[in-house]
Amino acid sequence: MSKQQHEKCLSAKQRIVVVGNGMVGHKFIEDMLVHDSDGQYQIITFSEESRLAYDRVQLSHYFSGKSAQDLALTDEDYYQQHGINYVLNECVTQVDHHKKLVVTASGREEPYDKLILATGSYPFVPPIPGNDQTHCHVYRTIDDLEAIEVSGNQSQVGVVIGGGLLGLEAANALKCMGLETHVVEFAPRLMAVQLDQGGGALLARKIEDLGVSVHTEKATTEIVAGESCRYRMSFADGTSLETDMVVFSAGIRPQDALARQSGIEVGERGGIVIDNQCQTSVEDIYAIGECALWQNRIFGLVAPGYQMAKVVAQQFCLDKAEGGFKGADMSTKLKLLGVDVASIGDAQGSTEGAQSYTFSDEIEQVYKRLIISPEGDKIIGAVLVGDVESYDQLLQIKLNDMPLPENPAVLILPQLAGEDASSSGAGVEALPDTASVCSCYDVTKGQIREAVAGGCQTMADLKSVTKASSGCGGCAAFAKQIMDAELASMGVSVSNHLCEHFEYSRQELADIVRIKQIKTFDALLDSHGTGLGCDVCKPAVGSILASFWNDYVLNDAHLELQDTNDIYLGNMQKDGTYSVVPRIPGGEITPDSLIVLGEVAKEFDLYTKITGGQRVDLFGAQLHELPLIWSKLVDAGFETGHAYGKSVRTVKSCVGSTWCRYGVADSVGFAIELENRYKGLRAPHKLKFAVSGCTRECAEAQSKDIGVIATENGWNLYVCGNGGMRPRHADLFASDLDSATLLAYVDRLLMFYIRTADRLQRTSVWLENLEGGLDYLKQVVIDDKLGLAKELETDMAYNISQYQCEWQTTLASPEKLKRFSHFINSEYPDQDLAYELERGQRRPADITVTNGQRIEIVDITEKSV
To answer: What is each CA distance from 52 to 23, 93, 579, in whole angstroms?
Structure first.
């Protein structure tokens, strides 16, 4: 096609200008790409930010390791491939609806046939004197988070003004940065919109137990210079609070300035007025998302914005919108600072004549309130704090006007009088096909049933076909329930077999190995499997064998079961070299041992890094160097740190009462005892521990698989937390324990996990999937419900007795050392490694590939071999 033909083709298309490239603006573009199969429209979108749309719902994960790229919903390549024009760093300042064009701050003019205002909202900053100082921030964009991170690196104390959803997320971000964190809220309780007084009170208590101070009914009057900190916040009641930084998260306001100055109708209190078709007061101009005011309501969640986007896209492409926008349910289920919280409908019980059932357990820190209609036949609201397991069921009963059981209290207390909540007939089978499952992508039960009928049998398949649970993820468990129920109704058995070679689950194989005392993969394959095995069953069985018998992993019988890292007892890096991580129990190390590490790193020119687990990681060792390095380390008293295995990695600790003026117990000593007890324990996945000497929690114990925090009366035990891609706060398992009892509980819990977890399943996911959850786990471990306590302790004792440093064993075997050479027929090392200097140490050089040749683009640091 010639340039003139191309331009003529474009001119024949209708032009859609989208002002705003946030989540909702991008969703509209995606919907248009789905529905505009004839290519009738040309789309251009403007973004005030320097990047395309990203996931603001997951914004807080930026502080737990996710990058801006991880949060991105799209990229420039995607838009270019689909013919979407985009302009970054450009603010639209004027709409001329007579000429049908928009004007940007730089003077750029763009004509439109249809205009979509998806300008979103902006953070409300209370008019407090001093609110514009250097270390005062808002919490809305990635740029905001980057600025908060800079301030956090220069601060000790941080305050969030606002105790709503975003405020508590911001507080979590400050806590993750290691700051002493405070939340200041004007209302009498946290999450005043979503929770009632009882729920808000328990939430505040649980958050304070996590080390975040909560100050309610506080009106800030000024922010001035502080004495002990950078600033002092003065309150209307005469009190004050000192802090080094302030984050404002006191609500949002619709971004309607463009509409106001362009003559488009806005509400008395803000928001661009729209009808059911999302049409504004001006023809061919639409508003969607948080900037839009529908029936005097602003929707501050992403799901309603997605519904608006769908309504507009269907109008343009299908000449219909399935009845238009009809409002949205604002129920929410989320985890704030590790605390499960859910709110449904009229959570305040403000409906005249409403009745309620309330359950409050201050020991277990659970609060539930069920609010029903005056007639007692419908759910109109609910509040859940600490235990939200019944959320999906309650929400579906409300949304679908389903009948209530004779005693509605069983819906929040299924065990009441021996009754079961399923007696209400509210299982997933009873739901109509119109029941909404995923509000982010407007997926119904009927669509899931259709997807299953079309061949979906896994959650990955279901996400691909329907997008259910691929937004905020809150509906994942509910969507799987429907999928499994539908498969069962079709007579399809969902296999839990480990692989094609074993018709058993990982848990069943663990029982077989343990009960029948099977010690090798070949013996298990001969007795209970078929074929030769594969890269799924071999490492899984290898882990099971190591967990129960703790045999040397490089014995000939086990060698083929190991992956690359285990075979060479080190983590392979991206350039083919390995890392060396000696064990440093509890993070305690003598000066002489530090000197040895420094000498080894210097001799072998290794990149040196202090890890988050309080160890020293030495990077860049070639394969033939590993025995030489470890020989020196073992001679100096070091052991392998098992950084390469699915095993206990580290036990992190603070200095505790030994040095710290706040410490109430010897956290270092106990951390060393824990690490020496469980070192080498193989499990379905890696395990991390931590011990804090007081509730200030400097060792971050509540983000670990096993976390221990000292109290005046003993130790508090937290379990099944983790960081990583999907962080989970650990649950309080038992309080005020003596050391012997705590060790017994940990023995039982870890062995029970090893027996029952799935392949490569972290303790966090294991607990979430464990039927009965935390309460059941307590019954097994603490109350010995299954009568396994002694057996589990005996299994652990055997495992501990079999411990050996795998590197020490390897160094004593000339046969095993033959594996540590690059080439079978040559003694030469790998000469094809390129390095560059960075901050005084060598690292893998950035290289490019041209005609199959590696080209070094920086100077190479010489390395003697």
So the answer is: 9, 19, 37
State how far the Cα of 258 lies from the Cα of 57, in Å rounded to an integer: 25
The amino acid sitting at 21 is N
pLDDT for position 418: 41
What are 171-228's pLDDT values in tens digits? 988 888 889 999 999 999 998 888 888 888 889 988 888 788 999 999 999 999 999 9
Per-residue model confidence as pLDDT tens digits over 65-120: 678 888 899 999 999 999 999 999 999 999 999 999 999 999 999 999 999 999 99
- CA 76 → CA 51, 79, 86, 87, 143, distances in Å? 9, 5, 8, 10, 19
The structure tokens 């006007």 sit at 401
Backbone dihedral angles phi then psi of residue 688, each to the nearest 5 degrees: -130, 140
Element containing residue 245 per DSSP (H, E): strand 245-248
- pLDDT mean across residues, the chain: 87
Sign of the CA dihedral running 746, 747, 750, 752: negative
d(CA 108, CA 92): 9
* pLDDT, tens digit (0-9, with 9 covering 90-100), for 667-691: 999 999 999 999 999 999 999 999 9
User: How is residue 139 written in tokens?
Assistant: 């919490």
Residue 239 phi, psi (nearest 5): -90, 175
Long-range contacts of 352-359 (CB under 8 A, 24+ apart): 354/380, 354/381, 357/408, 357/409, 357/412, 358/198, 359/412, 359/413
Q: Please choose, from the candidates 638, 620, 545, 551, the residue with its C-alpha nearest in 3D space to the C-alpha of residue 579.
A: 620
d(CA 793, CA 580): 32
Phi, psi dihedral angles at 792 (to 5 degrees): -65, -40
**For the chain, percent helix, then strand, then coil, each to nearest 5?**
35, 25, 45
Residue 524: exposure state from Cβ atoms within 10 A (0-12, 13-18, ≥19): buried
Segment (H or E) for 357: strand 355-361
Give the side-chain half-sphere CA count within 13 A for 108. 12
What integer pLDDT is reported at residue 420 of this predicted model? Answer: 42
Q: How many Cβ atoms sit within 10 Å of the Cβ of residue 583?
A: 21
Instruction: Estimate to the nearest angstrom the gap between the alpha carbon of 279 and the chain centroid.
Output: 37
Residues 544 and 814: beta-carbon distance below 8 Å:
no
54 vs 595: CA distance, rounded Å: 46
| Cβ density class 675-710: b for 16+ within 10 Å, e for less | bebbbbbbbbbbbbbbbbbbbebbbbbbbbbbbbbb
Amino acid, res. 248? F
Strands (E), 441-583: 443-444, 571-572, 578-580
Characterize 253-273 residue by residue with b for buried, 16 or more Cβ atoms within 10 angstroms of its Cβ, and e for exposed.
bbbbebbeebebebbeebbbb
Structure-token pair, residue 422? 């399923």
pLDDT at residue 858 greater than cutoff 50: no
Q: If DSSP states are collapsed to H, E and C, what string results for 656-672? A: HHHCCCCCCCCHHHHHH
Please give the Cα distance from 553 to 569 (Å, whole number).
10
Beta carbons within 8 Å of 399's beta carbon, 6+ residues apart: 329, 435, 436
Three-state secondary structure call for residue 181: strand
Task: Classify strands 220-225 and 231-235 as parallel, antiparallel or unpaired.
Answer: antiparallel
309 neighbors 342 (Cβ within 8 angstroms): no
pTM for this one?
0.55
Q: What distance in Å separates the CA atoms of residue 827 and residue 634, rounded to the nearest whole number?
A: 24
Pairing of strands 366-372, 379-385: antiparallel
Task: Work out the number of other CB atoms within 10 angstroms of the CB of residue 252.
Answer: 17
